[in-house]
Amino acid sequence: MLATAYRLFSRRGVRDVGVNEIVSASGVAKATLYQHFRTKNDLVLAFLEQREAEWTFALVEEESRVRGGTPEEQLLAIFDVFDDLFGDADRFDGCSFISILLELGPDSAAGQACIAHLATIRSIVSGRAERAGLTDPEGFARSWHILMKGSIIAAVEGDTAAARRAQRMAQLLIEDHRGEPD
After folding, report:
1. N or C: less crowded end of the chain, CB within 10 Å?
2. Nearest to 75 by CA among 131, 159, 11
3. In percent, how much of the chain has pLDDT > 70?
4. Percent of the chain at pLDDT exceeding 90
5. Which pLDDT band holds residue 94 (cuts at 50, 70, 90)?
6. Contact in structure between 83 and 164 (CB atoms under 8 Å)
7. Is the CB of residue 131 less than 8 Å from the CB of residue 174?
8. Burial letters for 68-85: b for 16+ Cβ neighbours within 10 Å, e otherwise?
9. What pLDDT is attached to residue 182?
């Protein structure tokens, strides 16, 4: 059920996917779905947790960490990961945290969960910025996150080079946060 919901929600959003479609596509009875998830909203929240595990931690955090030898290289490698992803139409489905936040709004339970999951990504970036010795790691992470989200939206629009463009801007952001030499 969750795998089916994951596939449908990540490709089409929450409002466009009904419980009946999830039940039909997963081959389970509606009663079984409701034994595991009391409401569709509970299923959406479970999907968002799964998305964080697969997208934030396994894809963005882990793959960029492996690709870079230093915290700064790991930051820039986020856009290498994105570049690979943006060029693979079978794997790239945008950012569910952004989509659902815009779809349901920040006051909904799912919107609040999206805000929390996006904060997790910023915390990864902030930690790397701190380890790289950059000034104002929190402010840096917020600016960096704008580049990440912007590149995702541009890629959804069809700009498969968006990650490379964002990476060039990211290098400038790093330079800006190196601080004053002694």
Report:
1. C
2. 131
3. 98
4. 97
5. very high
6. yes
7. no
8. beebbebbbbbbbbbbeb
9. 43
C-alpha to C-alpha distance for 106 and 124, rounded to whole angstroms: 22
The three-point CA angle 89-91-97 to 5° equals 110
Q: Does residue 72 contact residue 132 with C-beta atoms inside 8 Å?
A: yes
Question: What's the whole-number mean pLDDT along residues 31-38?
Answer: 93
Alpha-carbon distance of 60 to 54, in angstroms, equals 9
- Mean pLDDT, range 97-102, rounded to an integer: 97
Indicate if the alpha-carbon torsion angle 69, 74, 79, 82 is positive or negative.
Answer: positive
- Asked if 1 and 22 count as a contact pair (C-beta separation under 8 A), the reply is yes
pLDDT in tens, 144-181: 999 999 999 999 999 999 999 999 999 999 999 997 64
Cα Rg of the chain (Å, integer):
18
177/134 Cα distance (integer angstroms): 5
Q: Which helix (H) or strand (E) holds 59?
A: none
Closest CA to 22 of 52, 41, 1, 50: 1
Give, as one character, the DSSP assignment of residue 132: T
Mean pLDDT of the chain: 96
Distance linking the first and last C-alpha atoms of the chain: 58
